[in-house]
């Protein structure tokens, strides 16, 4: 598959189906994905082999100052051209909250956007699997928008879709998400298909029942639904049809939840 790999800490602006014109921030190493999930649909492909002994992923990640300098240069240039992106988005080659200076970098990013592009929203796309690590909650709360992934309310299905690293617990993740007091966007990718001979489908009646209950429990400010857009590392996966996404959205809207469908 063609992988999406970002070779610099600041990229774009690109058009994002979820966020409009978006300047991306990649806190992961150039050309190397780092994630504590290994999703079957990841646009960056499967996780690479671990580094050789003695080498640490963190040493390959851009430093706080490097990110701030690159971002300021880009924002200054865009301001000169009279352009303001809709969003500055932490995404890139993996899970941004794994950067050891995540919170400090979000702090710098907020200061720079206030200086150069105050109308722009700073967003973090996260898989929600790192919320108990030092500084992560703090960094997420500093940003304007937290877009937090939960692809299934049933742990067995989530494990099949996201392949979380050992130690992951959906129950624990949900209890940590509650600390946002609903001030976040719950993001879910719906798909069907099979992986290694196992059916994977987070759109069944049982899945949706559990997922609606989860949304009700978390009371997010917004729910964002989407489906596959590009080739996936695992073969045999299928998009959730648009009509199905609309019918899922309708159930939540009828309960008074703000829902958007991206894609
Ligand atoms: S959480 Fe995001 S970056 Fe990590 S494997 Fe899943 S899709 Fe890829």
Count of helix runs: 7
* Element pattern in H and E: EEHEHEHEHHEEEHEEHE
CATH uppermost class: Alpha Beta
Mean pLDDT across the residues is 94
Q: Considering DSSP H and I runs of 4 or more, what fraction of the residues is helical?
A: 25-40%
From the 3D coordinates, which CATH architecture would you assign? Alpha-Beta Barrel
Number of domains: 1
Q: What is the fourth-level CATH superfamily?
A: Aldolase class I
CATH topology: TIM Barrel
Please tell me about this protein's structure.
By secondary structure, the chain is an alpha/beta fold. The chain has a single domain (10-262), classed as TIM Barrel, CATH 3.20.20. The chain has seven helices and eleven strands. The strands form two sheets. An eight-stranded mixed beta sheet has the order 1-2-3-4-5-6-9-11. Helix 1 (64-80) links the parallel strand 2 and strand 3. Iron/sulfur cluster binds at residues 35, 37-39, 42, 44, 94-95, 127.
Question: Keywords, please?
Answer:
alpha/beta, TIM Barrel, globular, 263 residues, 7 helices, 3-stranded antiparallel β-sheet, binds iron/sulfur cluster
